[in-house]
Amino acid sequence: MRHPHSLTFTVADPASLEGRAILTRFFEDLVASYWGRPATSAEVTRAMRNEPSDDLRDGTGFFLLIRDDDRIIGCGGVRLIDETTGEVTRVFVAPEARGSGAGRALLQQLESASAQRGLRRLRLTVREDLTPTRSLYEACGYGAVESFSTSPYADHFLAKTIGTSEPQA
Q1: At what angle do helices 131-139 and 102-116 cross, to 10 degrees?
Q2: Beta-sheet pairing, 156-161 with 85-93
Q3: Contact predicate 136/124, CB 8 Å
Q4: Cβ 90 vs Cβ 54: under 8 Å
Q5: Residue 153 pLDDT grade (very low, low, confident, very high; cuts 50, 70, 90)
Q6: How far apart (Å, rounded) are the C-alpha atoms in residues 20 and 13?
Q7: What are the tens digits of pLDDT across the range 11-45?
Q8: Helices (H), 36-117
Q9: Longest Cα pair distance anywhere in the chain, in angstroms?
Q10: In angstroms, rounded to a whole number, what is the distance separating the alpha carbons of residues 9 and 41?
Q11: How many CA atoms lie within 13 A of 144 on its CB side?
Q12: H or E element at residue 25
């Protein structure tokens, strides 16, 4: 694993071969965490069907891949909610790359790409069992907000203002 500053990020179609491969890993990890055991192929297929990623392209959002050399080690997307708000989703760093700074670098890249698209606020949800993930979001400046989702998998609601030109202290 290289230094996080040497990682590369590329926009991809979530339905592409690379996109589907990393999203499969994302859902395997998510389902396994939820059930506390390895996910079955049927569970992953069902999760991908029930939670499609089609809105992370074609003007309704975007999807990024993280590469370390030629290996894809993660992904993340932003779904456009309105002209100034996006929802961070599908954030995943492969287990072998966790703790390297790749997750923080991914969030920074998602924020930068969102700001370039005119977004000023990003929001996200996180499940109760994903404590390290929630800690990362909070360390990156995402704070608790009122509920904006009825998903049974949304236990915490966080948001962050981005793209402001306020001077940094």
Answers
A1: 50
A2: unpaired
A3: no
A4: no
A5: confident
A6: 9
A7: 999 999 999 999 999 999 999 999 999 999 999 99
A8: 41-50, 102-116
A9: 50
A10: 28
A11: 3
A12: helix 17-35
- pLDDT for 104 equals 95
Place of tokens 């966080």: 158
Residues in the chain: 169
Q: Which two tokens stand for residue 39?
A: 């996910």
**């790359």: which residue's tokens?**
97
- The DSSP H or E segment spanning 67 is strand 61-68
Separation in Å, CA 96 to CA 70, 73, 114: 15, 8, 27
pLDDT digits (tens, 9 = 90+) for 42-59: 999 999 999 999 999 989
In what helix (H) or strand (E) does residue 65 lie, and over which residues does it extend? strand 61-68
The predicted model gives 73-83 an average pLDDT of 97
